[in-house]
Amino acid sequence: MSWLWIVAIPFAAQVVRISVPYALASLGGALTERSGVIDLAIEAKLLAGAFAAAAVAHATGSTWLGLAGGMSAGVAVALVQAFCALWLEADQVIVGVALNLMMLGGTRFLLQVLYHEGANSPPCPEYGDAVLANPTVWLAVAAAVCVPLALTRTRWGLRLRAAGDRPDALVAVGASVKQERVAAVAVGGALAGAGGAQLALAVGGFVANISQGRGYMALVLVILSGWRPGWAALAGVGIAFADALNFRLQITGLPVLRELGPLLPYVLTLAVLVIFGGQKQKPPESLGKL
Amino acid sequence: MKKELQAAAIALLASMAIGSVLVLVVGQSPAHVWWQMVVRTFSSWYDVGQLLYKATALVFTGLGVALALDAGLFNIGGEAQLGAGVLACAMVGTALPAGTPALVAIPACTLAAAVAGGAIGWLIGVLRVTRGAHEVITSIMLDAIVAGIVLWIANAYVFVNGTATGLPIARGAELPSLGMGGSAANVALVLALAVAGAMWWLRARTTWGQAWRTVGADREAARSAGIAVGRVQILVMTGSGALCGLAATSLVLGHEHAYEQGLGAGVGFLGISAALLGRMHPVGIVLAALVLGFLSSGGLAVDDLVPKELTEVLQGVVILAIAAAVPLVRRASP
After folding, report:
1. What is the pLDDT of residues A44-94, one digit of tens each?
2. Best CA proximity match to A140, nearest among A250, A258, A50, A230
3. Mean pLDDT across the stretch A242-260?
4. Which of B90, B37, B18 is nearest to B302 (CA)?
């Protein structure tokens, strides 16, 4: 049976690597949404995180600084989102889609301005195929444990959930709803930014549209998990499995699979959403409301 | 009406301000770049024609997105709907016998584009109404899925060996060019304006328009008034998809006269900007399409000064700015 392990272990390692961005993004999305802010901007945070990670790692030669850069970029996008949604009171769904389009074009703009390149950043230090030596893997595991605990077991988590469910209760005890929400959105942005960093640092560079809709899939995971971050992160492993399976199918070289194989994660996400959506737990009561 | 104009004006000014900052980042003078955009675009018939060509497709996708928004649905599946429309339109055009008269060929291709786009819109609507799946999520998933399927069909049946282009469509299906300095501007512009007129009439003068706008304004009130909300939502998404698919008439019948990989890419997303900037009003959408058409053709005209990716950023900025400007105006004048 040893041949089985030769196939299974690299495959499992690949699933783990691919699931990191999904897990981190959905954990961040769950935090943001539980505080009452619709998080359609996850895609933008992944893109910004990936670009910043590649740019910083390229400039400094350090993946650690790259990771920090990616997380900061995620926070920056999150703060713009919070400013538009909470202070300017803009429609949160539209803000999310607008930010995604802005970052899709914005990262390409920066590629052109910084490197005079159309689609690829110059190479930067990378994690490669490492799993145990990849800090974002450990960050994802730690976050998958800590975020649910923080949400249910700490004062911060209690207030965050209050901001999402009963903001008036928060006002009654003299706390600021906006403050709780901004904190949640910022932490969510840092997590999604780290997910983006893994996308770029795994392959040693940024590519235009590197996130390929993973941010939207992360939001689906949040919804399907009934806004429970631990389950959302776990479901991310399922999507990663479909992704990894596609890579294996590509190697077979069958012509139909070349075009349709990459659709596997999207089809799976859509199918799961259609079959299981709308019968789980209710969203936070004040989601999207000011 | 006045508020809508104010919101659009504020959004445009804010977007220009942010665009100016980006121009400064590149190390150019904003005033010079904006002025050159105007001068270079309006100094030749060719460039004006290109502007109109870009605006034509945007009127269709803008009207499509606006129809859904009017009914409280956010259709960001325009990319998929237009992608399918372009492929269907070209495939029907190629399949027609060479001697097919224009009176048959043009309606057949136009219908194919609308049906293909409408089918995807219908699917999004049905998933929303029967399964409660949010249309933004299903739209994005379908954008990816349809793009893959379109590529698969094109590789298998459309592309002429090894190229990324299909066979030319029947001569009868070609829409005449407007002949502006050899530009791509074509008669589909007239069709776009006619569709905008029809949408205005439907929206403002019929009970159908009343129904879908009531659903958009207050779903519960619409239900109480006896409107079949689910049916309206599915119909509206179907119509929205069909309108997005119709942009293929300008791209395929009016200009390329064949299928080409990536034809119409980005026009579906840009339709969101057109719809929001036009404040969902057909006349506003036509104006917004002209402004956005100017941005993208003008962006190409000054690509020796600033990278053309700058206009891509501005498309998103316009959406963000209008989303922020609407509540701002609403609060200022209650």
Report:
1. 999 999 999 999 999 999 999 999 999 999 999 999 999 999 999 999 989
2. A230
3. 79
4. B37
- Of the candidates A89, A111, A269, the beta carbon closest to that of B327 is on A89
**pTM of the prediction?**
0.91
**C-beta atoms of A267 and B134 within 8 A:** no
Cβ pairs A/B, distance under 8 A = 132
Write down the ipTM of this complex. 0.90
Q: Has residue A254 got a pLDDT over 80?
A: no
Note whether A266 contacts B25, CB cutoff 8 Å.
Answer: no
User: For B245-264, b where at least 16 C-beta lie within 10 A, e where not — what string?
Assistant: bbbbbbbbbbbbbbbbeebb
Listed in sequence order, the residues at least 6 apart from B82 whose beta carbon sits closer than 8 Å to its beta carbon are B57, B61, B117, B244, B245, B247, B248, B264, B267, B268
Please report the pLDDT score of residue A278 as a whole number. 57
B141: chain A residues, CB-CB within 8 Å: 213, 216-217, 220, 266-267, 269-270, 273
* Integer Cα distance of A264 and A221 in angstroms: 16
**A256 contacts in chain B (CB < 8 Å):** 152
Does B173 score more than 90 pLDDT?
A: yes
The two three-digit tokens of residue B172, written as one number: 């009868």
Tokens 């209050």 correspond to: A162
Query: Hunting for tokens 């400064």 — which residue is that?
Result: B24
CA angle B158, B163, B164 (to 5 degrees): 65
Output the six-digit token pair for B15.
Answer: 């977007």
Q: What is the 3-state secondary structure (H, E, C) of A232-244?
A: HHHHHHHHHHHHH
Q: For B37-44, which contacts have Cβ atoms below 8 Å and span 24 or more sequence positions?
A: B37/B294, B37/B298, B37/B299, B37/B301, B37/B302, B38/B298, B40/B298, B40/B301, B40/B302, B41/B294, B41/B297, B41/B298, B41/B301, B44/B181
Give the separation between CA B108 and CA A142, rounded to whole angstroms: 58
State both tokens at A268: 């799976």
d(C-alpha A220, C-alpha B200), whole Å:
36
Q: pLDDT band at B150, cuts 50/70/90?
A: very high
Report whether B59 contacts B131 (CB < 8 A): no
Residue B300, pLDDT score: 87
Nearest to A106 among B269, B313, B323 (CB): B313
Instruction: Determine the angle formed by the axes of helices B102-131 and B78-95, rounding to 10 degrees.
Output: 150
Q: Is the pLDDT of residue B4 over 90?
A: no
d(CA B252, CA B248): 6
> Is B55 exposed, middle or buried, given 0-12, 13-18 or 19+ CB atoms closer than 10 A?
buried
